[in-house]
Structure formats: C-alpha cells, structure tokens
Specification:
The chain is built from eleven helices and 16 strands. With 398 residues, the protein is an alpha/beta fold. The strands form three sheets. The protein has a seven-stranded mixed beta sheet. A five-stranded antiparallel beta sheet has the order 1-2-5-4-3. A hairpin with a 3-residue loop joins strand 1 and strand 2. Helix 1 packs antiparallel against helix 2 and helix 5 packs across helix 6.
Amino acid sequence: MNLHTAKGTLTETRETLPLDSLAEVDTVALDDQSDTLAIIDQTKLPATLEVEYLSSRDEAYRAIKRLEVRGAPAIGVAAAIALYLDVHSYWEHLSSTDSAPVTDAEGWERLSARLTETATYLDSSRPTAVNLSWALHRMGARAAASRHAGDTPAAAVQALHDEAVAIRNEDVRVCRAIGEHGLSLLHDGDGILTHCNAGRLATVRYGTATAPIYLGAERGMTFHVWCDETRPLLQGARLTAFELMASGIDTCLECDNMSASLMSTDRIQAVFVGCDRVAANGDAANKIGTSLLALAAARHHVPVYVCAPTSTIDRACATGHDIRIEQRAPEEVTELWYERRMAPESVRVYNPAFDVTDADLIAGIVTEFGVARPPYTESLAAIFQRKETVERNKVHPE
C-alpha cells in the first residue's frame, strides 16, 4: 500500500498524517520515487502519526536501534530495504565517477565488500530479533546467486531490489496466514490478553499476535482484547491499544502486574503474544514480562499462544539459554516517560529488553504453516518440512 495514500503534511524527510489513517499506511515500505526507506516513527505514537523517509544506512541503523521501527518482522523488512538502498546508492556513485569505467570483475569485488560491510553494520543494531539477521542473510544469498549466474553488478543491484520487495510482500502474506491459523483457536466473544506490540506496527500489515483478531473482526466476530501496558517502553499502551482502537476493536488497557488478577476473573480465554526468536525446543524470547504472564496463565489454566513466522524460528538455537538478550539503557526505566526523574540518582538499573518463556508454558506456536504443539522439537521440524514442500512446489500457505 502506498504510504502517500493518506494526505498529510510533508517536510523534507517526514510526513505527518491524520491519526485515523493508520490502517491506510504500511509500517515499513520502499519508496521507489525518492529511493528511501519509509517507516512509521513509533516513538511519536500515539500523539502523532509520522512517516519518516530514511536515505542512508546510518539513518536506518539509528531508526532500528532507537525503536523508531520495531517488531521482529518489521525490523527484518526495514533492514532488507536499507541494505538494498545502500548498495544501490554505492553502485550509482561508483558508476558515475569520472575515472575509467569499472569492469564487472572490479565492480563485483567492490559491491560484495560494500554489501558485507553494510549488512554487518545493520545486523549489530539489535541482537535478539532473528528476523534482522535472517533478512540480511537472505539478501546476501540473493546477491551471491546473481553473481554465480554471471549477472553484471548492475543486474545484481536490481535483484536486491526485487528481493527486498519480495521480503516485504511475504511478510504481509505470512501474517495473514498466521491470522487464519490463530483464528481457529478462538471463539466469538473470547477475551484475549496480549503483551507488548505484535500488531500491524510490528510488521508491514496485520501483525502476528493481532492478525487473528483483525481477521475475525473482518468476518463479524467480536473479541474483548486486554493490553498489558508493557513497561518500561509502554508498547502495549502506546502502540497496541492505539492500533486496536483505530480498528474499532473493543480494547482495555491494564498495567503488567494486573494480569494475574484479571485471569482469575475468567474473563481471559487465551493469551496471544508475538516473539523475537524461537529456539528449536520451543522456548521463545519475547518482550520482557512475557514469561511472568505465561506463569500466571499456567496457574489459571489459560492457554498461551506464541505467534511466530518461520523466519523467527532459529533452528540453530537449541534452547532459550542460547538466546542473547539485549540490555537497554537505564534511562528507559528511570526517566524516559516522566516529566522529571522518578528514581534516585545513581541507582543501578536492570533493563533487559526480553525474557525467555519456557516451552512447557506455551500451548502452541502459531506459524504461517500451521500450529505447532508440544513436543516442539518434533512439531517445529514438521512445520519446516511443510514449508520446504510448499516452497519447492512454489505455492503459498493458506
């Protein structure tokens, strides 16, 4: 969907849109007209809906690091587009110099070096979300295949463009498929609890954990969604509650430590969350606080479903103990959302961005190829077997 669909106020690199136009705007997009990565700046929500146009790898790195674009799938798409744009810009510069024309052999050497350098740089922006490295690796593989096929460097740059667009389009299709499988686990009128933001703002469109909610609403179903506030960055309050209300979904906000109390009232039939990395055994790293939510859900016999594209499942990671957890700045806890500092000066702060929910607390992992159930070492392997069959036959999951 074109980012310019909803008319707004355009400055040199930013465009402010009406708040009620969220459904018309993709979270991440490649703007071919301006050769930029266009993102919704999520640090401005819910007060302002602002699209930012990024033209350099440094701007893309900053946007990912500062959570202007966030959510594992959205980060992957943004990184793929940013990598293409950087290589494209580099090749344009290399081709337009006044010196002797660059030979294909020399061009390939320079292009490959630039691609590796930029991919490594972007991959260092956030360590936990596997989609970031997955997308960058996929872009690198596409370039290598182009070189192996005897393409010119210019043709390889076009191939990278096409691959970035394909990754973006697949994200939309995958999220909708996750929505279909997740919807099979729900009933009309269900109460659903979610944590952080695994909605349309964490992907190009639909979201992962919210995709079943959106698809159900499209079909006339009614859900009652409870959003954990999600300290310390308030993604549930600022993002999930905002986007659900913008779509007309019945939404109620609560502080994270109220979830157990809420589940004891029998108003929650399921917990749906996203994740940033799933280990081969089914352990899942998601926004900090998810593991406590899962423990409370187990006590109250509420099923917890993790919604994860197969690109988020890291089969090279044996268990959750192998997942590197990002540590973030102490200021996010002590002062970021306050008019004045709300903690003593110099107090030590523990601020991990994620925690790991053990596989035995997860009722199912919802992917675009179906719902995996315990034991996950077997069911996730079966999911990937289906994926390989689908890709071999070049058909899309339903």
